[in-house]
User: Fold this.
Amino acid sequence: MNKKTLSFPYLFWAGAFIVIPLCMVFYYGITDKTGAFTLENIITIATQEHCKALLLSIELSLISTILCFLLAYPLAMILTGMEVNTHSFIVLIFILPMWMNFLLRTLAWQTLLEKTGVINSILGFLHLPALELINTPGAIVLGMVYNFLPFMVLPIYNALAKIDKNVINAARDLGANGIQTFLRITLPLSLPGIISGVTMVFIPALTTFVISTLLGGSKILLIGNVIEQEFTQTGNWHLGSGLSIVLMIFILINMILEAVFDQEGEGASL
Amino acid sequence: MKRKCKILIPLILGMSMFALTACGSGQSGANGEVIVYNWGEYIDPDVISSFEEETGIRVIYDEFETNEIMYPKVEAGASAYDVVCPSDYMIRKMIDNDLLAKIDFDHIPNAKAHIGQQYYEQSREFDPTNEYSIPYCWGTVGILYNKTMVAQPVDSWNILWDETYADSILMQDSVRDAFMVALKRDGASMNTLDETQLQAAKEALIAQKPLVQAYVIDQVRDKMIGGEAAIGVIYSGEAIYTQRENPDLEYVIPKEGTNVWIDSWVIPKNAPNPENAEKFIDYMCRPDIALKNFEYITYSTPNEGARELIEDEDIKNSPIAFPDLSQYDNLETYSYLGEEGDALYSELWKEVKSE
Amino acid sequence: MKKHLRNFYIGLIFLFLYAPILTLIVLSFNASKTRAKWGGFTLKWYSSMFRNDAILQALSTTLMIALLSALIATVIGTVACISMQAMKRRNKAILMGITNIPMLNADIVTGISLMLLFITLGFRFGFMTILLSHITFNIPYVILSVMPRMKQLNPSIYEAALDLGASHTRAFFKVVFPDLLPGILSGFLMAFTMSLDDFIITHFTKGPGVDTLSTKIYTEVKKGIKPEMYALSTLIFVTVLILLFLVNKTPAEKRKHPIP
Assistant:
């Protein structure tokens, strides 16, 4: 069998279902209803409502990414430090929740956070005032952290597990204290994992529309919601595509960042 | 890794065996199929199965939340439907954009015999020649409130701006309904294209937003029954159902006036099974079937035959199920606003939502 | 002391990850239909789930799509890996770049791009369009798990087999394939899992009457979810739990890919 012919099925598939569809998004993004060239669909990101949605998305996804990192790093370190059963721990933490449908898991938070929900019932039982939890930006951040935390822990854990123990021991022998070792050895060596984790949390958080719908009561409009509504409700594919192009710019920046920091391409291989 | 595969792969194979057998149970009916696109919770599921049994036509049933979600799907044509149930202004939009087929009333005898004449007359507003649509349900939009949470009398849209009920108000997550509330409150028409009126309505909706618990559609029902909110904007048809589930709830039509709407069956031009679509609509117009639907969804039916069959006199003459609309003088029906009008409304709505 | 702190932290994370799941499980036994009230213990949602055609249909569609898309993606992806070995360095890099797109791109953009493609081609939305989309986003996962194995292969073994008189096909299946198998299998499992969990791309490419569990749940959420769904997810959860327990009874061999 000739190896050239073997490559045809995938070449065809990649062309038909990856490249051409993306070109179509670009085509719709830079044309108007009559098919004439325009940049209006992209510039519209500067209008107040789109800008607000984008900025809010960036803000919430940044907060979520930072929170994920702060939660995940100690966890990954603890996991690396554990000698036995690390594997089953990882399975328990990450794989099992993933098999529960992601919409159902998010929906469960609705039940917990609702006005008459579990948390407020407990507060009421303790004679504490009820909290306004659901339909706030905080609830959305919570949903993002909850859903994307595993994507932060895994790459960091992989990076930490790869660090040679002797390097750390050498640093200690040479007189570095715990904090110095951490800052100058562990942290820099785990950087590829961090970068890859940040990408894997930031992009889905930035573009989500499901979490904001389920936990935001449709009161909070993220850029993902705007795009989804342009396609499913307003029916303005050109505008929706234009905004998608703007999103892709962010994705591109992220890809470049990752390529720069993670040249071996190891952190990304989940 | 290998160990894991040894167990997981048989499992996956087992599951797929299940999938294959389960798929087998849903093969197409002896007489083809009909693809129905209807509002959520807008039919008695038993009616679908009885239709399938009687006609041998398999029903493929899909649901939408708002007219706005329905329209792009039908327009794109990639999902072909046989029967759709849009509201008034959307029917006009579909007629104008040449998406609907004319209905042959000779094939739908029950529609002629049992649907009240006044509903056809009302339909002329959006279907001037009565050729494209057959009324399915009608009603108004009003306020549903919980008597244990709201002490004051409710008779005006203004209560939706009352700070006492902050975080206990449910608004409709649909452009036209949300703007209708704000416009009517200001005494404007719900079909206005006047820039200042619309800007005022937008500002009002923005001012209201902090008080709103959530923008929802079908969820209003469950949330009101569950006592999660005190006041909600809802379609009249849900009133009887919600009252049955929670007697503390009360439905009112505000004094500033409201929207009166009709949802009608239509057949899209690209319907793959138009004959089956006619059979389906005819079946829905049969009085006993319309009655079953009415009892399940509790939306007012334009089917005179079905109303005759209602045994419970209270319901038959209920002012909520069958209101006498002549006592209100400021009711309006949505009209199609044209492409630019639609764009203007959705732009303003986006501004409200992004605030 | 330090150890306690660690355990406490892990406990907190566990609570965070499992509180919602526990809630779902508890709700599946709740006799009252609304989530807000506890109406006593019941098993009725389990029995009515097995009589609910819509849910069973969605479950079977989900499994069919996951299985078929994972299988087809595995075949295409594996063949692609083999053929990429023979490519020029630059072409290979370009193709790998394209392969990375569906993984790194936002799901919503992938979803709408495929939707636009299907509409332009005049496809009718339904089972096929979902399947094609799932294959598309599954192939990269297969390629990324087969590729490392491919790199570890020793080409001289294959050549030796040829020298000893084996045909190309025979040499491949007897010599190369067994070495690739672990990578292929883990790629398959990964693709299967990704397909199971996908909502966004299915949301944009599905047609009338075809629902996966995800899209079914999404429509139900908008209407008020039925407790049968909690029952179903509890069952899925328990099944997977038992399964993973069986697999992990003894410490597994150290793996390259922590996710199946």
About this structure: Confidence is low (pLDDT under 50) at residues 265-270 of chain A. Chain A touches chain C through 84 residues (CB under 8 Å).
